[in-house]
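>> received
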Amino acid sequence: MPGKPTYEELEAQVQSLQQQVADLEDDLHRAQWDGEFFSRSMLENLPFDFWVQDLQDQIILQSNLSRRHWGEALKGSDITKGLPESGVKLLKENKSKVAKGQTVAWEMQTGDGDLDTRIFYNILSPVYSRGVLRGMLGIFFDVTDQRIAQEALNDSRLRLRVLLAQMPGAMMWTTDVNLRNTLSLGAALGSIGLESTQTPGMSLEDFFAISTPDFPPIRAHQAALKGISSAYEIVWSQRTFQAHTEPLRKQNGEIAGVISVAIDVTERKNIETALRESNEMARALLNASTDSVVLLDRQGAILALNQTCASNLRSSVDDALSECVWDLPQKYMPSLEQAQIQAVLDTGKSLRYSDERNNRFYDVLVYPIHDQEDHVDRVAVFARDVTAQKQAEEEKLRLESQLQQAQKAEAIGTLASGIAHDFNNILSAIMGYTEMCTMEIPEGSMAHNNLLQVLKASHRAKDLVGQILTFSRQKGQEQKPVQMDLVVNEALKLLRASLPSTITFRRYIKREMGKVLADPTALHQVLMNLCTNASHAMRNAGGVLEVRLENKAFEPDEPLPDPGMAPGRYLRLTVSDTGHGMDAQTMERIFDPYFTTKEMGEGAGLGLAVVQGIVNSHGGVITVKSTLGEGSSFRVYLPETDTCDVDEQDEILPAPRGQERILFVDDEPDLLQLGKQMLEHLGYQVVTFLNPNEALQEFTQNPGAFDCVVTDQTMPYMTGGVLAQKILEIKPDTPIVLCTGYSEIMSEEKAKTLGIRGYMMKPLELFRFSSIVREALDASV
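>> returned
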């Protein structure tokens, strides 16, 4: 259906009709108004109401359309007869204007306001004939449909304004063909600092607040003028918009401008950016994780995985996607059994289990993932390599075991130290009184020789106490050049008598094979322990015990028996047996403290641990070879030394004597009496005290009465070290000798720093004791 004519078109038609009327008037004048020269068929069929009236308001011509509108023919009648009252009034007012030569136009409504109501646009124009006003030309245009369409358009525009005003972040604008704004609507205008009233007439540069014509939205508007639609994104006053631009067309299709719509997507963009950053962060964290992470669907297809998992599958992330996990090699990652995955999918419950592959240990968690309908459609698998953790736990258990062993050793050491202290006091009495007796009995007599044997055994006992203190880590071993063959032969003399007859004993030892820097008693203990263990291994079936001592030199390019050794000259002590031997597992632990293969009550598991400790403290190493059922062989390598011997005095030398006054303090009555007797035997004047407080009081009252003070270290009420300090405060140059069998808080070095001149480890031996006292006295001269 063709569109309704516009007002401009109607005006053109009126002007055309006016010309036609003028022409008709000429024709009428020539035909004396008889109408025969009119083309009635044309006039009567015009598409609007048309009539011509004379100056007496009589209708002389009308169109067929006007007859339908007004109900009957108006020819020869007054035009006002078909008009409503309001229309008659307006017609009379406008006729007076036409009589003056004016053309007038107005609107008029007919009907009672119901569905039959019509709206007419009326034009009344004068009609001239040869310059003389002859009548009037009236035209009524029915614009009812146009008014309805205009109202609908206005209503649509209002609805659009309301819609855009209520839509947060939305706006629209139009431009003319010169790209100047003609209309702007929408709530989003405020977010970019604009109002709808200020935009009409704006150029696009001002509208978008930019200075470059190459701006993408401007190019989109230019394209719209060519009939091309565009969608684009624009950042506008720090807000992000998605916009769409279309050509704005007239009814005839001609482009009259541009229309654009934009939606503020800033928040959505921010959310998308945050989500993208979150996903990237999650992806980075997953790829940085050393755990294997994989997402599987119900068929086992890989939906996602991290780099660690891809590496364990011996694949790349891209290549592994969409692959079935059960079709890929799982040699380097924990097993993912289809039944386990299916159980999680069916029950919706997570599953955790441990697995071991290629000596690697894994902790695996299979976790269900629910969809929007709460159905489990995927599972996430997290696999952690806990090998290091498991090894750390095993190491922790091992260290805890070592700590327990160390605590046991510490307890034994504390007990040993206490025993050593008491035993030194006993030995002091034995050795001291024996030495005193030897001075009273003639040399060469049987009694004198027996007493010398007692002294020799007492010295051995003293060395054993030293070993106890060494074990308790309270006393270092005193090492000196030792003729190794002499020590070995002396130990074997004692050992041979204790071996059962079922064991054949063989030894291969040459004289003067060389010296080692060692503690003879410690070496004696090493040999006795090794031989005792060998004897125990053959006690049921008998066998051969062999002890061999030989020189062994290792050149720089020669393989060494142990990595801890250095090239050089060694003395090698070998103890072999043909007993039951050991397996590899036992050999790995034989030097561990408290490890023993003996029955309960037969051994404490300390023998070989102590042996290894002694050998290591002498700069040597110990190795072992053994075959189960054939026997064992232990080899001790000790570095050979060229250091000259320290002169040893086996005979009892005369003890140094003196006549000075000595204050002697000890809480043990027997030792106090022994010390007094020894010193008085040597000519000294001795005053004794059991209580250190009483001794201090006596010295305080008479400091000049004493030339030397001899005191025990461990005493009730006051230690010997404290007593020495108080005495030196009273008389700084007083010679003091400190005696101790064992002390945790006192050493020879510390005693010297306190100003104590003499330091003696018990037991008290006459010659050594008297020598230390004499040296302390002489140092003050």
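>> Residues 661-778 form a domain with the Rossmann fold fold (CATH 3.40.50.2300).
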